[in-house]
Amino acid sequence: MDSLALGADLEPEPVVDEHSTVTLFVNGEETTLTVDHRATVLETLRERFGLTGAKKGCDHGQCGACTVLVDGRRINSCLLLAVTQDGATVTTVEGLADGESLHPVQQAFVERDALQCGFCTPGQICSAVGMLREAADGHPSHVTPPDTETGPVALDADEIRERMSGNLCRCGAYPRIVEAIEDVIE
Amino acid sequence: MTTQAPQFPGAPVVRREARDKVTGTARYAADRTPAGCLYAWTVPATIAAGRVTAVRAVDALAVPGVHSVLTHDNAPRLQEPDDPILAVLQDDRVPHHGMPVALVIADSLEAARTGAGELHIEYERDPHDVTLTEDHLGLYTPEEANGGFPAVRNRGDVERALAASPVQVDATYRMDALHNHPMEPHAATAVWADGHLTVHDSSQGSDKVRGSLAQAFGMDPDHITVVSEHVGGGFGSKGTTRPQGVLAAMAAQHTGHPVKLVFPRAQLAEVVGHRAPTIQRVRLGADLDGVLTAVSHEVVTQTSTVKEFVEQAAVPARVMYASPNSRTGHRVVALDVPSPSWMRAPGEASGMYALESAMDELASALGLDPVELRLRNEPATEPDSGRPFSSRGLAACLRDGAARFGWHDRDPRPAARQEGRWLIGTGVASATYPVLVSRSTASAHAAPDGSLTIRVNATDIGTGARTVLAQIAADALGADPAAVHVDIGSTDLPTASLAGGSSGTASWGWAVHKAAADLAARLAGHTGPLPAEGVTTTADTEQETAEESPYARHAFGAHFAETAVDAVTGEVRVRRLLGVYAAGRILNARTARSQFTGGMVMGIGMALTEGCGIDPVFGDFTAKDLASYHVPVCADTADIQAHWIEEDDRHLNPMGSKGIGEIGIVGTAAAIGNAVRHATGARLRELPLTPDTLLPYLL
Amino acid sequence: MKPFGYARPASTDEAVRLCAAGPGARFLGGGTNLVDLMKLGVETPRILIDVSGLPLDRVTRTADGGLSIGATVRNSDLASHPDVTEDYPALSQALLAGASGQLRNAATTGGNLLQRTRCRYFQDVSKPCNKRLPGSGCPALEGTHRDLAILGHSPECVATNPSDMAVALAALDATVLLVGPEGERAVPLTEFHRLPGENPDQDTVIRPGELITEVVLPPPVPGAASRYRKARDRASFAFALVSVAATLRVAAGRVEHATLAFGGVAHRPWRARRAEAELRDAPATPAAFQHALIAELAEARPLRDNAFKVDLARRLALDVLGELTERQQARTG
Q1: Contact residues, chain C, for B568 at CB < 8 Å
Q2: Residues in chain C with pLDDT < 70?
């Protein structure tokens, strides 16, 4: 016996539908597809849509490499089951640029060399885009002083570092990432 | 060719794949899904020693979508591989926890994972021993440590010199295992077609991987192509061939389909190597002026029962400081643990933590400034070999760093500065890393349309190899780097060495420089239009790299840290980290800075957050995922600066460069630990410096 | 992960009905812990009942001036809600101290309360664990337990509750509203999570088929200040070694009102009732705080490798109470 998991009992499985049809709006394009309930948004983007920008670094919401924007909010796509996202708008790193013109966050990452191996980069960039929106919407962070006025939060380096801490970078590009985001804010 | 002024190496050229990486179009090994691709999920051993006695696959095979289950019973037979860790699914032996014992192959990742959960494996357990102690009965002195260094070196009479020294330090430093954890898990996509095997592998050197696969599968290397176009970091863990390519190729052979295999994050720690835990005793003897009379660095570490790997932590003490008496040695014990291997600056990172902490202890004992102590012990020649240094910039780094950091205003008294609830301290440590270079080949091609192409099987693991190779070629050709096309990352290209040992740029760059210079000469002598096939030159640096240098060649550096320790909780923050490096010529200031600071960030992790024990009962690493093994996050960093001193060293390579990928982590943990000592008065000799370790020393 | 069915009910009644219809049903909120555990094989639901779309996503004032928080309100929205930042800052601080921006955007109030321990043995199905498989044993007791409990544990289980939010809710006297096959009921948050005792498989008092619909906060205590602080192994994105939530009102140098809860120390958010009793009407001085905390932590039974948590809890709470006292005095003085 190698597994001590619960649920190894032998009662017959009830017949349930293990697939569903969902419609996703991915990078501006509407697609209806049938998904295995076990499939995450990450797996679906990568293996069904061929959008391999979002990366699987840990598959458990612990690294942020899979970050995409769902209905405008940054989220770990590895923990999001595709079946739950019927009707959702998903923006991946492939959908940020405007034609040949890079998104300002992408451009700043290039100029600041805010990347090395590049594996965490799509997640970093989507996270930064979502984070800038959160700050503009007045969301405080762990380092926002408690008595801060409501309204858009001014992002200094400490704010950026705290808010970007859900995206690991093993190459240690953090100092450059912070500079890149500061450039965008300016 | 171009009318633009050439940009010589050193220019901060933007890395050329940056756009691909920020738009998500750069493809990594797992980003390939060939038609008909199946997905494999590895099943790791759940015991630390023993053997697999039975595998019941009936439930797994009944899972819809599961294609097959490979175990040692039915997996393709391999030849004896060039690295014993690659002998996967070949027999029933389990040498350590986490060893792959089965592979479930299915038409979707979900089905493969589900199938793995339904696999029933029975084991016969042997007693296991996974605990390193400094008096372990199995400790022995190996022939060599990693890198081919002799395990033991003695000069003079250390014991006598120590006994006669008016000032002595005798301290033992400990570190648990550290894990590389590149953000890209090790992945491979394998395709067999018409007797040809193509593997997209996340490796630091696809020629190495091809060699391993050829050996394991008994094939002619010409029938294998390995591609490592973009690699999501490696830090040593992808520098030797890892089992993913072997397993994917076996699965593809068995099923007749392309197979993609990505090691789950929680399995990585036990299959891709790790920095072995070390117990390091450092003894220093000095006269009252701080001049060293004896240096002893004795390392105890562990290896696996599969292969011998000895972290060469005592080796940097053979390079660093003058002393007439010296002993540096390693002892190792083979335990029932996963095989340790390379992790960023193996030997230097762990060894310099101990040596540079001990130097700080000596400075305290002497009442001498720690920068000054190091300056007083600058050797005229390499202490161990007596060879002259090709260049040695340590003193310059220390002086420059001290000036930039504001070191001279430092109040040396420990535990004397407080800002609110933060205790403030500063610390310094030296860094060193050897200059390594390996044979490579390259070609340079000029087409009739004026385009230039460099071909070399270099690997870009995040260093910016394409960019700097274009700069080197452009320099030799008098061209604009933007006009030079660079093809890397495939065994279809001229054979080259791996991205490891901070040797990539020197090794590939040398071959590229040679081919490009040759091409430049050919073009200079050519009149009229180029022939239709263009002009191609090839280069091989076999001869150049085989020559033993009469010089001791190392990069040096100095790290300065300012830390704040929360007097309430013991949490440590690195407020400032400043590195100054003497690493020959810096070929691209932009990408070089990123490599230096990146190493320093990993050093923060080594100092404060990283470390992993082994569970004595189950024999597995206790922190296998990224929630429990704490690599630093953005909030762990603050003001991090890298500077360098221009060195004109003619004894290196045509570019005059030393490697820069690893030195950033060397000594960083010591600088931080020394700063914590300065902040709190607490001399901790074990990493990482987590809150629980500091609390007993706080009021 | 075993195949499973999926349903997306339109109402709480339908959700409860669906859940009661067959064994192996699990409610799914943001999925940040449940999907994680399904991948690990720890959770093997046969059907997921997705409640994230239920109309439980509002934060509203209650008639008495308290706050009603819908079960599907996302952690990030709750943390930035003006009523929370204004009147219950400790709750906002706790939420923001937890996880990452991405996870907070997905995680729900109800799901956060039901998240499982991060004990490594619980998360690894190849190992025994009384919480996952009752009767199989607790390797953590003698194994890796630096991050585990010092209070209220049992020989069967030394796990800790990982939530930051729940610690603040415990100090704020929150109430959890549930609806199930037998109707609705309200459970004080401090009684919602259990101590492990002999059946550590039960994290909470929730009954089969019950769904969290709301968390209700009483009106803020007039004049009281609140604070949440957390000590951890890295600067962000790490679970608490120890955390402290407190509310305090000081007048004329004496404690008029105090609540205190610890995180990271027990199988549930640890409401420090003994310390609170000691604090009531005591002088608002470090000595009195110290006395109260020592009284509370006297019952701690640390394991081999986590005795530091006793000291850390005391130090952190002492500092938080001192900070709140200072703020009160700054405001009134």
Answers
A1: 315-316, 318-319
A2: 332-333
What is the three-class DSSP state of B606?
helix
What topology does CATH give the domain C225-332?
A: Enolase-like; domain 1 (3.30.390)
**Cα B236 from Cα B345, distance rounded (Å):** 8
- Chains adjacent to B (≥3 CB pairs closer than 8 angstroms): A, C
pLDDT for residue A149? 83
Task: Tell me which residue has tokens 């940040």.
Answer: C32
Question: pLDDT tens digits, residue range B236-249?
Answer: 999 999 999 999 99
DSSP per position, B294-329: EEEEEEEEEEESS------TTGGGGTS---SEEEEE
pLDDT bucket at B9, cuts 50 / 70 / 90: low
Domains and CATH numbers, chain B: 18-27+438-540 (3.30.365.10), 32-127+183-233+238-268 (3.30.365.10), 144-178+274-435+550-697 (3.30.365.10)
Map out the domains of chain C as residue ranges.
Answer: 225-332
- Average pLDDT, integer, range B450-472: 97
Segments in B256-378 forming alpha helices (H): 265-268, 348-366, 370-376
Q: Predicted ipTM?
A: 0.97
Q: What's the CA gap between B356 and B351, in Å, rounded?
A: 8
What digits encode the pLDDT tens for the residues B313-333? 999 999 999 999 999 999 999
Q: Are A84 and A39 in contact (CB under 8 A)?
A: no
Do C258 and C331 meet the contact criterion of CB atoms below 8 Å apart? no
- From B596's Cα to the closest Cα of chain A, the distance in A is 9
**Cβ atoms of residues B357 and B674 within 8 Å:** yes
Nearest-angstrom CA–CA distance, B564 and B536? 58
**pLDDT at residue C332, rounded to an integer:** 65
**B453, B515 in Cβ contact below 8 A?**
no
**Length reported for chain C:** 333
Confidence class for position B1, pLDDT limits 50, 70, 90? very low
Say if strands C225-232 and C175-180 run parallel, antiparallel, or are unpaired. Answer: unpaired
Q: Which of B63, B628, B687 has the most C C-beta neighbours within 10 Å, making it the best mutation to test the interface with C?
A: B628
Contacts of A133 in chain C (CB under 8 A): none
Q: Which residues of chain A have pLDDT under 50?
A: 1-12
Q: Is B382 a catalytic residue?
A: no
Domains of chain A, with CATH numbers? 19-95 (3.10.20.30), 104-185 (1.10.150.120)
Distance of alpha carbon B508 from alpha carbon B459, whole angstroms: 10
Contact B630 C234 (CB under 8 A): yes
Percent pLDDT > 70 in chain B is: 99
Predicted confidence (pLDDT) at residue B4 exceeds the cutoff of 90: no
Residue B200's H or E segment, with its range, is strand B196-201
> Which residues of B fall below an 8 Å CB-CB distance to C?
46, 64, 110, 113-114, 117, 421, 566, 568-571, 573, 608-609, 613, 615-618, 622-623, 627-628, 630, 632-636, 690-692, 695-696, 698
Q: Check residue A9 and give its pLDDT.
A: 46
Residue B2 pLDDT > 60: no
Amino acid at B411: D
Mean pLDDT of chain B, nearest integer: 97
Q: What are the pLDDT digits (tens) for B143-169? A: 999 999 999 999 999 999 999 999 999
> Is the pLDDT reported for residue B594 higher than 60?
yes
Beta strands in B4-151 (DSSP E): 38-44, 50-56, 66-71, 93-94, 100-106, 120-125, 144-145, 149-150
Q: Which of residues 8-67 of A touch B (CB under 8 A)?
A: 36, 38-39, 43, 46-47, 50-60, 62-63, 65
Instruction: Outline where chain A has alpha helix (H).
Output: 41-43, 104-112, 121-136, 157-163, 174-185
